[in-house]
Design goal:
This protein is of the alpha+beta class and 117 residues long. Helices cover 18% and strands 38% of the residues. Strands 1-2-3-4-5 form a 5-stranded antiparallel beta sheet, with helices on one face. The protein is elongated and about 40 Å long. The two termini are 16 Å apart.
Amino acid sequence: METKEKMKVIEREYFNGRQSVEFEGIYEYKGHKLKVQIDIDSYDFQSSATLKVFDTKEMKWNFLVKVPYSQMASLKKDERDCEAVFYQRKVDQLKPSERIAIAKDIDELLRKAKQIL
């Protein structure tokens, strides 16, 4: 019988890039350390949402999974044809709906990681 292990949050941080809002979170799942990195750039195609797993033998982060920028919830257009996270928005200016969109990208990466691990 499989036990349901929970994703443990180690740290989470939003920060400003030059022309982007970025997120980095470290999690633990089934003994694996996971790093979520999201970069919502003012140019969609420069945005990224990736998850890496820590290799304890090599002592480095290895790529595990991504959400292509074209499928990132934080870049989807709303009913007014505006993107969820707007051009050169700063972290302290994020609206609740924008944080929710970023959280959807985080959740999607963690969901994919759970399937793989």
